[in-house]
Write a structure and sequence with these properties.
The protein has 297 residues and is an alpha+beta fold. The chain has 3 domains: 2-58, Roll (Structural Genomics Hypothetical 15.5 Kd Protein In mrcA-pckA Intergenic Region, Chain A), CATH 3.10.290.10; 65-157, Pseudouridine synthase, CATH 3.30.2350.10; 164-262 and 290-295, Pseudouridine synthase (2-Layer Sandwich), CATH 3.30.2350. Helix content is 19%, strand content 28%. It has helices spanning 13-21, 25-33, 105-112, 145-156, 230-237, 285-295; strands spanning 2-5, 11-12, 37-39, 49-50, 55-58, 76-79, 83-88, 136-142, 161-169, 176-180, 183-185, 193-195, 204-212, 216-223, 261-269, 276-280. The strands form 4 sheets. Strands 6, 7, 8, 9, 10, 13, 14, 15 and 16 form a 9-stranded mixed sheet that branches. Strands 1-5-3 form a 3-stranded antiparallel sheet. A two-stranded antiparallel ribbon has the order 2-4. The longest helix is centred in the middle third of the chain and has 12 residues, at 145-156. The chain is globular, with a radius of gyration of 20 Å. The mean pLDDT is 92.
Amino acid sequence: METLIVDLENERLDTYLAKKLNLTRSKISKMIKSEKILLNDKKVKAGTLVNLNDKINYEIIEDEMKATAEDIPLDIVYEDDDVIIVNKPNGMVVHPAVGNKSGTLVNALINHSKNLSHVNGEFRPGIVHRIDAYTTGLLMVAKNDYAHNFLQAQLQAKTIKRKYVALVWGVIQNDSGMIDAPIMRDKNNRKKMAVGNINSKSAITHFKVLKRFKKATLIELTLETGRTHQIRVHMNYIGHPVVNDPVYGNRKLIDLTGQCLHAKMIGFIHPRSKEYMEFDSELPQCFLNILKSFEEE
């Protein structure tokens, strides 16, 4: 659950959260009835008044929906009876949600395979982990619940190996570094994340410089934690936002193809054979096109 500390006096719980989380009061009411909202660790009613420094724990519930199969091409790097490794293209949302009920990776996966795990419900079959819509690269997909739980356990134990490549604004002087800065949901926009100390979770990112350009740096990144938007938030925090990121950094977009961030490598223990497997992918053309423009400067 996420945590909020109340910053005003004498307001209805549902009204306060609707404004803070940018949700409707009916959605908040549904969350309260489903016990996804606790006030000072207790179940309460929507009309309960909140006061300064009250603690609200909440979990945003997805609207129930069932994903449908769509004939969308998939770039499958590897597949067997337990796992699929897919190279997600730019602009594809991983699973259906409000505002994105079709055209997602899940819609394509359902069309491709009748065997997908159900650990995460009917609208996220097979999905073990996610990357942003405009981040490209490798994702693990589970074809049964056993494989899903096995892979999920590795994620929680932080034994999955993942490497990202990003092009960021500015010239990074150090050849390598670590960013240790906790991440929280942005208090002014729940669709964004931010570095902060209140209501935050530990987040650690390691980076290594691959190549420097006149106005940008190509870097490789590994994560100790997997917070939402972690790389994008951390690089923006140190003054080197990801090139072409439409949300973080307040930099002019080069084009509309999405941020220059690619999940390049993934390695894990296979759930059935118990052998280590590792997969790598090339940078997508949209990334290479922008990279070329910096190389030519």
